[in-house]
Amino acid sequence: MWLSVLTAVLAGYMLGNLNGAVCISALMKDDVRSHGSGNAGLTNFIRSYGAGQALLVILIDAGKAVLSCVIGGLLLRQELGFTAGASIGGAAVILGHAYPVFLGFRGGKGILSGFFVALTVDWRIALLLLLVFATAYFLTRYVSLGSVLAAAAFAVCFAVLHRDDLTVALCGVFTGTLAVFMHRGNIARLLKGQERKTDLFKKK
Questions:
Q1: What SS3 state is found at 91?
Q2: Which tens digits make up the pLDDT trace of 107-137?
Q3: Measured in whole angstroms, how far is the alpha carbon of residue 24 from the centre of its chain?
Q4: Residue 53 domain-assigned (yes or no)
Q5: How many CA atoms are closer than 13 Å to the CA of 21, on its beta-carbon side?
Q6: Residue 86 lies in a domain
Q7: Which residues of 82-111 are buried (b: 16+ CB within 10 A; e: fewer)?
Q8: Cβ-based neighbour number of residue 49 at 10 Å
Q9: Domain of residue 120, residue span
Q10: How wide is the angle at C-alpha 106 spanned by C-alphas 44 and 187, nearest 5°?
Q11: Which 8-state DSSP code applies to residue 34?
Q12: Model pTM greater than 0.85?
């Protein structure tokens, strides 16, 4: 079993290194991390280049999240069950997205990929996360606030709704907590009233 777990973790982590914002900006002969906040995520990509190419970023980050979950689920469906295996793959892909070894450990914050991990593992939680994020964003126009609240909800929902499966619960708590940690700078700016608002639908 442990070989399957290791394979699922390594596969997920390596896929996490495939960062949509970095890939698409590289095709534009640029690096999204040299602009704005320096973050390799969807929000900074939209701030830097507009929403026109954002769909390609979403497709890459969504695809790697779903694929990692499916790989983990298939590898571990006999020993732990598909949901637990998918949770392990999902946690690994978010870790790879946040700290990608092939990108100098300068990755994204995991919100977009995390949503698709939740959608693959438990669609009910994904819908709740979408509601939390959308409500916070449309009321305040702070992407970071919506992201932090959604990440916290991710951890809480998996801990509560999957308390009967320790593997799923722990992976959910790890993933949500990591996403909150990745926003520590945003949280500090929010508390100081210095955070920047973003129009996600603006074309540049």
A1: helix
A2: 999 999 999 999 999 999 999 999 999 999 9
A3: 17
A4: yes
A5: 30
A6: yes
A7: bbbbbbbbbbbbbbbbbbbeebeeebbbbb
A8: 21
A9: 2-192
A10: 55
A11: G
A12: yes
Q: Would you say residue 200 lies in a domain?
A: no
- Tell me which H or E stretch contains 28: none
Residues 6+ apart with CB under 8 A from 37: 43, 44, 47
| Interval 32-60: pLDDT, tens | 898 877 888 888 898 888 878 889 999 99
- Containing H/E element for 75? helix 54-76
Q: Are 201 and 131 in contact (CB under 8 A)?
A: no
**Within a domain: 204:** no
pLDDT the model gives residue 17:
96
The answer to whether the beta carbons of residues 22 and 33 sit under 8 Å apart is: yes
What tokens appear for 37 in the block?
Answer: 């906040």
Number of domains into which the chain is organized? 1
- Helices first, then strands: H and E counts in the chain: 10, 0
- pLDDT, tens digit, 9 for 90 and up, residues 169-181: 999 999 999 999 9
DSSP 99-166: S-GGGTT----SHHHHHHHHHHH-HHHHHHHHHHHHHHHHHH--HHHHHHHHHHHHHHHHHHHTTT-H
| Nearest-angstrom CA–CA distance, 41 and 51 | 13
> CA-CA distance, 27 to 78, in Å (whole number)?
41
Cα separation, 93 vs 85, in Å, equals: 12
